[in-house]
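Students often ask why we bother encoding 3D structure as a string. The short answer is that it lets us treat folding as translation between two languages. Here is a chain of 328 residues written in the first language.
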Amino acid sequence: MTRPGEGLVVDRRAFLGTLAGGLLGAPLPTRAQPKIPRIGVLWPNPPATFEDFRTGLTELGYVEGRNIALEYRWAQGNLDRLPQFAEELVKLKVDVIVTLGPPAAIAVKRATETVPIVVLAIGDPVASGLVNSVARPGGNFTGFFLDIPELGGKQIELLIEAVPAVSRLAVLWDETIGEVQFRATEKAPRPAGIKLQSLPIRREQDINEAIQQAMRDQANGLVVLSSPLIYQHRSQIGSIALNARLPTISLFNTFPKEGGLMAYGPDFPAIYTRAAGYVARILAGANAGELPIQRPTKFELVINLKTAKALGITVPLILQQRADEVIE
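And here it is in the second language, the structure alphabet:
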């Protein structure tokens, strides 16, 4: 015979035991994983030039696969693919897009008015209608732009200093996107008596014929302007020019390492690092349109003495001493 209340105690203990067992056996609630920022990358050329940007991100604490994800689109020199790739990145809802060159900048600008954009390009972003002003670009756009008029004149000056006998300079440029560059170089100050010859190209197959035309017209120097097409085939251009015995200068500091005589242009690794800084600021909440357009602050002169020797040129010692890098 149970005493009053004894059964109630037993039942309460059984209930509490069952409840505790159920709680212990139930899966613990999972904490939501933080969202990893995604960076869209739209590059017109193969990715070799992109590594400095990735390094810049890493130095700022953003490590791919750990706390950021990168969505890549490489156009492999085919500019017709840029609009499609830009739209794909927008549809992926990336947090920011970083891209290189005027054609890519235009493609991304047309694809989105909301996703922040950081561009590395050449030319005047205000005159081209990409931004409202350099100090306050406005909208979703910012970046780093290279001023061509001053650069073109400096390249002509340096090539003449290296090869004083130059009297006729040919200018190799990409007719599909480079008219602004060519016209600026054409108008740049140069010594009296120095004539410029236009060598427009539209595709890889035009390169050899253009340089052969320069030889037929007795050009004795070659200024190589920039575009994705020209960058992609810079080694071919350097080789053909060397065989044609044409001293050359380009803004790409890799150009002399591939047969060109000289390069004078911005410190591209430094620009990519600064671009990574802009991306980091945007991921931290900065408004792209309030980040001022920046210009390169450091330029490099590279001279290939092996090429000079092959061309029968003696580069003045004073010019060699001013060079940031001399290839011997």
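Translate back mentally: The two ends are 109 Å apart (CA to CA). Keep this in mind for the problem set.
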